[in-house]
What we know:
By secondary structure, the chain is an alpha+beta fold. It has nine helices and seven strands.
Amino acid sequence: MSGYLAFMLVLVAVGVFVSIQLNRLNVIIQKVAHVDSEIIRMGEALSETTTSLVRFEKRYLVTRDVAFYRRFQEIRRAYERMQDRLKHLAAAEDLAPQVERIASLSRAYLAQVEKDHRRAQEHNDTMNGIYLARKTELIDGIRQHLQHMISRARLRRDEKIDSSSRISTTVIRMSMAAALVGIAIGLLVSLGSTRSINRSIKQLQAKTREVAAGRFAPLPPIESPPEIASLSREFDLMCLRLGELNAMKEDFIRHVSHELRTPLTAIKEASSLLLEERFRQEPAYQHQLLGIVKDECNRLIASVNRMLDLSRMEAGMMDYAFEPLDLLEVLRRCVLKLAPIAISRKIALEICPPSRELPKVKADRDRIYQLLENLIGNALKFSETGGEVRIETAFADNPAAGLLVRVVDRGCGIPSDQLDNIFDKFHRIDDGRETGRGTGLGLSIAKHVVAAHGGKLWAESRLGQGSTFCFTLPLA
């Protein structure tokens, strides 16, 4: 920007300078064409007219022919008009004194001619030598002053032509200098921008290779150009997000491996015992082992189904069977299922219905049950022994939002910096706590379920004081 600003200032300065010089050149050309050249032409015409006046005046005095005198008067009038025009032109070039002397001599000459004309009419005598010498002196003076005026006009014309030539040369040189300066500035700006862009792009290329290799460290600061700097900041955010996703993926793989290994190990051991027929004579133990195999298979199927459900939800391929649904009925079923967990941990689990009857909601029974199971199960998992979990139902503040469900616990709470990320897949908030293992998919599935129903899911929490998960469902 600084380079382009300097280039624009140079262009503006050169443009102003060239405009001023061209205006001067135009004024000079106008004066040369309409003043100096006209003065020279008028001076030469006056010189020729003076010769004509003298010639016809002499013919008249010699022959006394009136026709010559009339012709003399015609030329005299033209002569006086040319003098008036010359006075007007000479005023612009400071030649007025010279023209005034020519006019004074011309008046004296014409006055002398009038005297000779009257004498010739009155006395019919010949030309007097004294008068002839006087007129010759006046005519010579007129011619001398005309030649001097013409010489001065030519000198001034030549000076103006030289000045216009110098102005033209200066304008050409300034234009060439401005062009060279502009090219130099353009090259410098282009070189600087190219080097800055290339250096930044090379850093981005190197960082891209690092990301491809699984290293997500942030880029060194890039300050310019601004577009690349903005891109580098976005790239850093991407690297940060990729790093988080990579960590969550590794954590997910670790958790899933545990989730799958534990039931598979139990199935393997139970099936091995059955194949070895160790309890062939004890049908009760065989039945117990088969029960273990069945339960662990169900556990595996549930884990795989959660992952498949999330994949279908993210792809928009999950099928929902919407119907008018009694939400309290689904709540009671879910609470009854999870009640043994609450009893074993001495956690008070209760439903707090509103004071008036709730209308039905438009929802998929199985998905709402899955949603409630995830939210209530998490609340129980993160509650301390002897704690409390409440499920509250009410009408939403906005009538268009339908019903509001709140799952409230008095557990450990969620750090404020994780509230925005807890609904991301693979994200877990039980690190470092003695809680049941999980895949980190429950809240992500819950978010998709609520969004598919046209509702909204959010969390409120204070660290050490518990959490509240809220969601809305539209009315049927």
